[in-house]
From TrEMBL:
GO BP: any one term: DNA recombination
Organism per entry: Pseudomonas batumici
Protein name: Recombination-associated protein RdgC
GO cellular component, one term: cytoplasm
PANTHER family (alphabetical): RECOMBINATION-ASSOCIATED PROTEIN RDGC
Main location: cytoplasm
Keyword field: Cytoplasm, DNA recombination
Molecular function per GO: double-stranded DNA binding
Source organism superkingdom: Bacteria
Amino acid sequence: MWFKNLLIYRLTQDLPFDAEALETALASKPARPCASQELTTYGFVAPFGKGEDAPLVHVSGDFLLVAARKEERILPGSVVRDALKEKVEEIEAEQMRKVYKKERDQLKDEIIQAFLPRAFIRRSSTFAAIAPKQGLILVNSASPKRAEDLLSTLREVLGTLPVRPLTVKTAPSAIMTDWVKTLAAAEHFFVLDECELRDTHEDGGIVRCKRQDLTGEEIQLHLSTGKVVTQLSLAWQDKLAFVLDDKMVVKRLKFEDLLQDQAEQDGGDEALGQLDASFTLMMLTFGEFLPQLFDALGGEEMPQGI
C-alpha cells in the first residue's frame, strides 16, 4: 500500500470525518458493473480486501483511506468510424441520396448502442488518504482529472467537501531551476539525475534528461539560455525518491527499502496487517516529508479568507 503519485489537496474547513458516518456515506454509492447500455459507472470500493464485509473506510490511527473504482466500456473510435462509414455508403448506394450530419450522428449513436454490450470493460481504481488533523487529502494519482472524479464523488455523498489544490508561495519551476543552477537543493533534499527543461518563449524547445549528471556544462548551458526546470528527480533524506513537476505533482514515488522493511516487520504474517502497516508508515512519512517540501518551495500559500 505505497502510493506511486501524489496530488495534494488542502481542506479549507474543519470536517469531523467520523469513520462510521463516512462509511455510511460511501455505501450510498458503491461501485457496480456497467449495465449493457452503460458507458461508465463510478463508485466506492473497499480499499483493502473484497467481500460484503470489507469496510469502505480503512482507519489507521488518525488517518483514513478510501478508494473509488471506475468501470468503463471501451469502444475503439476506429471501429465506430469504420462501421459508420460502411452504413453511410450502404444508404447512399441503395437510396441514391446524401447522408447529412444530423442523420450521421443518429446512425453513430445507434452503432454505439449496438456495440456496447460486446465492448471490452476496463476497471481502474483511485485511492485517497485523508489526514484530518493535518487538513490534507492525498490522492494517489498524477492525473488531476482522476483526482477530481474521486473528490467530486466524495463531495456528492458527503454533501460538502471544501478542498482546493494545495499551492505554494514560490513557483516550483523557479525553485527547481535555482537548485540545478546552484547545484544545491534545500536542506534534506538531494538533486538526482533526471530533469525536464523548457524554453519559456512561445513554442519553445523542451529538453528531457535521464541518467544525466545535472551538474555538467551541457545542463548549465541550457539554463544560461533561459530554459527553466519543469520536472526534477529528487531524494528526501534516505526515505523517498520522486519526481516533482511545476504543477506541484509528486510523481514516481519510491519508498526506500528501509521503510518497506520496517512495514514488513510491523505488519506481521497476515496480508491485512502488512497493508495496514505500510499505509500507516507511509502516512507518518508524509507527515514529515510534506511540511519540509512546502517549506523548501517557499511555504504554503494561503488565499485570503481561508
